[in-house]
């Protein structure tokens, strides 16, 4: 129980909690833009009601994401001052670009989106919604660029142990970034679609909002059937990138100890890091080489090729990766079965709707386990291959980190527990009738301190 370990545990808790809300709000913002776009074309109450219902959900999720993100960034100064000193010249500007571009864009148009329905024209309100959606994607761009640089650093020079940017294009578009960015965005979209479909299925089971729920369930189904196969392809590309740039991480993900060709795919095992072997392994011969190298006889490096103090922990990446992939295929199966039942006209069978409800958290769990694979698999480095995590930690007393960790857990459970409770209440209320816009509401208001026309005439 060192201060470094507790600081890592604290950061893991905060970021694991935080990432769920941006993943949800990224998908919801684009979903809201879609809903309002359809409403502008069809002008029916169904689409307006759906827009306002999900707008309330977005507002709560967005707020909790912003608050938890601010708290997380404070730890760079409190618990990880060593990282700030050596890598602040590179990571600091990337995070500032996120504030100057995405956050300002979101803040500018969010007020119009939330409160301007009766104040501005339909087209202006739709543009505001689109700007917020674009802002969430820009935010994802910069955050993923900073994190990817820590995974595959590029475009820098080191002087006196400190990183200095040498080529910003190489810093931003580092080797892992082009693959990790779409992988994260697709993961956010899939997580949101699972919630939309699951909530719709729950309403159908309860016999509520049938027309609205039927429409959104079919949209979620069609979206997942298209996007999840794309995510599988992007995930495969990400695996090839990890093999190229972070071979020790790949060895941990696959619990591969010996370097060899004709590698089997290990479906399940219990990795034993002390004995450097796997117990109870269930292997599929040669399939590992096919998947990891796209060659029947491809070679994969084993953990024994790396010094013991440069190997990541094995169990967390190994099991997290299998949970993520397993849930991905389960979601794909749910969508494909839904398409088949949709075609047969039996989409609303109770057992199928219950399966959707049970799968609501699956997208978030997949995102969370994917982050654990990426971050734990990067260890023992905070900047891969250059700066160790132990060197980045602030030398704090253990008691101080224990106190802050307990405080974080207590505050998060209290405040964000209340936020989650409110989200559940909104879901229980459902997409009720939304406010109707007054035709004259968006006309230009009177100038401040202007005199009424009748007074002038008098």
From TrEMBL:
<dbReference type="InterPro" id="IPR002585">
    <property type="entry name" value="Cyt-d_ubiquinol_oxidase_su_1"/>
</dbReference>
<keyword id="KW-0408">Iron</keyword>
<keyword id="KW-1003">Cell membrane</keyword>
<keyword id="KW-1133">Transmembrane helix</keyword>
<protein>
    <submittedName>
        <fullName>Cytochrome ubiquinol oxidase subunit I</fullName>
    </submittedName>
</protein>
<keyword id="KW-0472">Membrane</keyword>
<feature type="transmembrane region" description="Helical">
    <location>
        <begin position="184"/>
        <end position="205"/>
    </location>
</feature>
<feature type="transmembrane region" description="Helical">
    <location>
        <begin position="351"/>
        <end position="374"/>
    </location>
</feature>
<feature type="transmembrane region" description="Helical">
    <location>
        <begin position="124"/>
        <end position="144"/>
    </location>
</feature>
<dbReference type="Pfam" id="PF01654">
    <property type="entry name" value="Cyt_bd_oxida_I"/>
</dbReference>
<keyword id="KW-0479">Metal-binding</keyword>
<feature type="transmembrane region" description="Helical">
    <location>
        <begin position="319"/>
        <end position="339"/>
    </location>
</feature>
<keyword id="KW-0812">Transmembrane</keyword>
<feature type="transmembrane region" description="Helical">
    <location>
        <begin position="217"/>
        <end position="234"/>
    </location>
</feature>
<keyword id="KW-0813">Transport</keyword>
<keyword id="KW-0249">Electron transport</keyword>
<feature type="transmembrane region" description="Helical">
    <location>
        <begin position="401"/>
        <end position="424"/>
    </location>
</feature>
<feature type="transmembrane region" description="Helical">
    <location>
        <begin position="53"/>
        <end position="74"/>
    </location>
</feature>
<keyword id="KW-0349">Heme</keyword>
<comment type="similarity">
    <text>Belongs to the cytochrome ubiquinol oxidase subunit 1 family.</text>
</comment>
<feature type="transmembrane region" description="Helical">
    <location>
        <begin position="94"/>
        <end position="117"/>
    </location>
</feature>
<feature type="transmembrane region" description="Helical">
    <location>
        <begin position="12"/>
        <end position="41"/>
    </location>
</feature>
